[in-house]
Amino acid sequence: MAGRKRKMLALGETAAPGRDVNKRVNKSDLNGSHPEPKRASTCETDRSAEAERSRYFPDNNPQSRLGEDFFSQSCISLAKALLGKVLTRRCADGTELRGRIVETEAYLGGEDKASHSAGGKRTERNTAMFMKPGTIYVYPIYGIYLCMNVSSEEEGAAVLLRSLEPLQGHAAMRQLRAARRKEGARQLKDKELCNGPSKLCQALDIRRCFDRRDLASDPEVWLESDASTIPVETPSVVAAPRIGIESHGEWAQKPLRFYLRGHPCVSVVNKEAERESGNPAKHSSPTEF
């Protein structure tokens, strides 16, 4: 009996890893993660990657996931509050890609002539802008690229995520970006992986199907706070005109783009805005809009 018992225990120990693997697979299924095979394998190439320390922030200690309360604020306030927060994308195999938000743009809804919801217009495309705060709004540009926005508490108002500082999963991000570039193109630098609204969607595999999802509860993409997040009213935050809306008159000049001064991952630096933001007397107030 003793010999048989030892044999049965040995068999049980051999089978245990298989049961653990099955549990992980089932958990992934419950999360509803069913990406295309090619993209799933991309994340697998960086399976063993650990969180990397930011080169531009003193701390990189992961904190809690941001919930509904965080998103329930005005569009301008949310655009500033998002700076320093970490966008996280979980792949099918459990690998997580992370990038710190360093640049945003606020689109204020009905009164904002540059907004997709200008005049209070609601369409099939911009429905997410009218949904509860924290709803993801993903839309295509030029027919092939995507941009990711986050709705705020105001009707039809949302914040565009413009640039990230890559923190975790660099190899997977580089492979995802390379898939959309010409064969033989030079390898991207780390700071070039997510320094634009469409680039960050490519690098984190943000898809069109993420439109209208809830950042506070979605199992595949969410936002995290971070110990190194800076206060939004410090001189480190630059307020500048938004990019690519020159045809919208006075709204093209409103300082509704916010970025971290001196950060190498910012998409476009505005020297004039940086000089003005360094002068407290010239700081713009949200009430001016």
From TrEMBL:
SUPFAM superfamilies: FMT C-terminal domain-like. It catalyses: Hydrolysis of alkylated DNA, releasing 3-methyladenine, 3-methylguanine, 7-methylguanine and 7-methyladenine. Its EC number is 3.2.2.21. One of its GO terms (molecular function) is alkylbase DNA N-glycosylase activity. It is an enzyme of class 3 (hydrolase). Keywords: DNA damage, DNA repair, Hydrolase. CDD domains: AAG. Gene3D superfamilies: Methylpurine-DNA glycosylase (MPG). It holds the Pfam family Pur_DNA_glyco. Residues 1-63 are annotated as: Disordered. The keyword Methyltransferase does not apply. The keyword DNA repair applies. One of its GO terms (biological process) is base-excision repair. It comes from the Eukaryota. Residues 35-56 have a biased composition (Basic and acidic residues). InterPro entries: Formyl_transferase-like_C_sf, MPG, MPG_sf. Hydrolysis of the deoxyribose N-glycosidic bond to excise 3-methyladenine, and 7-methylguanine from the damaged DNA polymer formed by alkylation lesions. Binds MBD1. Binds SSBP1. Belongs to the DNA glycosylase MPG family. This is DNA-3-methyladenine glycosylase. The lineage of its organism: Eukaryota, Metazoa, Chordata, Craniata, Vertebrata.
